Amino acid sequence: MKTSDENLIATKSKAFAIRCINLYKYLTDNKKEFVMVKQLLRSGTSIGANIKEAIRGQSKADFGAKMNIALKESSESEYWLELLYETKFIKENEAESMLSDCRELIKLLTSIVKTTFGNKEI
């Protein structure tokens, strides 16, 4: 398996985590929003952490389980981004950009999980 330095999903998830961290800093400092953005911070940074663990997994089952957790965290991140937009804490262009990155992660992770588990229902 490729190292995380060469791995597309690891690179994209880390970039997304950095965006979540920067959004957290902006919203807590400038908009005084602490609850939803904290949830996004947790789920958005958890994606890459689980992917990193999966890459170093002890077995195919361990790899699949960690990737599935990353997929769930991606879905949760999508939810928090939608709420932040719908409650007007972030602008449409900001939401669209981050949601696009998040949904790309969801597609990649869905494909990885399905392939790992033999296209079984996930």
Model description:
By secondary structure, this protein is mostly helical. The protein has a single domain (8-116), classed as 23S rRNA-intervening sequence (de novo design (two linked rop proteins), Up-down Bundle). It has four helices and no strands. Helix 3 packs antiparallel against helix 4. It is elongated and about 45 Å long. The two termini are 23 Å apart.
Which helices and strands, and how do they pair?
Layout lengths: L7 H24 L3 H21 L4 H27 L5 H25 L6
Helix pairs in contact: 1-2, 1-4, 2-3, 3-4
The CATH class is identified as Mainly Alpha
Number of strands: 0
Order of helices and strands: HHHH
N→C terminal distance: 23 Å
Mean pLDDT: 94
CATH architecture: Up-down Bundle
**Domain unit count:** 1
The share of residues in helices is over 70%
C-alpha Rg (nearest Å): 15 Å
Seen as an oligomer or otherwise, the chain set is single chain
* Low-confidence segments: 1-5
What is the CATH topology classification name? de novo design (two linked rop proteins)
Protein traits:
122 residues; de novo design (two linked rop proteins); 80% helix; mainly alpha; elongated; disordered N terminus; 4 helices
Quick description:
The chain is mostly helical and 122 residues long. It has one domain: 23S rRNA-intervening sequence (de novo design (two linked rop proteins)). The chain contains 4 helices and no strands.
